[in-house]
Specification:
By secondary structure, the chain is an alpha/beta fold. It has helices at about 15-30, 55-60, 95-105, 125-130, 155-174, and strands at about 70-75, 85-90, 110-115, 135-140. It is built from 5 helices and 4 strands, in the order H-H-E-E-H-E-H-E-H. Helix 1 (about 15-30) packs across helix 5 (about 155-174).
Length: about 170
């Protein structure tokens, strides 16, 4: 916690309930589309702030061979998109040649800011270090990060829907 006051509940609405909600909704949507001929594995890790414990453990003890994993998408803090700029930060675009062509033709309702590196302070790093292409979706830092004030009332649901629609378009294109 970055909070230094009296003990208080940290609801974590953005970090990281927004990411959990995104994964659940994507799983429901993809399961309802019988035209998809791909297998998806939805995993929610713990211990990220302590040193990527969950994701490190998974890539060292995977449930499937890692050479069968096409890519890893990480949704960490996707609930506070700026309602004016609609900026979505996507890291890891340099980890696969598919990413560059994947973004070109999407009409997304978001202003994309991309970074090439597959290394960052979240669970995608564990996969990238095993040579698995990654994308890290993030809507930006805020003053409520790791504080009790990271509450549901501050979530931008329209922004989350924009991230969701962007991701579905990207998955359909890939």
């Amino acid at each position: 916690s970055m909070y230094r006051g009296e003990p208080a509940v940290h609801n974590g609405a953005d970090d990281n309930a927004s990411g959990v909600a995104m994964v659940i909704e994507l799983a429901k949507k993809l399961a309802s589309q019988p035209t998809h001929r791909h297998n998806y594995l939805f995993i929610l890790f713990s211990g990220e702030e302590l040193g990527l414990y969950g994701s490190k453990w998974y890539v060292e003890h995977p449930s499937i061979r890692t050479d069968k994993i096409d890519y890893m998408l990480n949704f960490d803090m996707v609930g506070r998109m700026d309602s004016i700029t609609h900026t979505l930060i996507v890291g890891g675009v340099g980890t696969s040649t598919d990413w560059a062509s994947g973004f070109d033709t999407l009409s997304t309702g978001v202003h994309l800011k991309t970074t090439e590196s597959g290394v960052g302070p979240s669970d995608h790093t564990s996969f990238y270090l095993k040579n698995i292409p990654v994308l890290h979706f993030f809507t930006g830092q805020h003053k409520d990060y790791h504080k009790p004030s990271d509450d549901e009332a501050k979530i931008n649901y329209d922004g989350m829907d924009r991230v969701f629609r962007f991701t579905l378009q990207l998955l359909n294109k890939l």
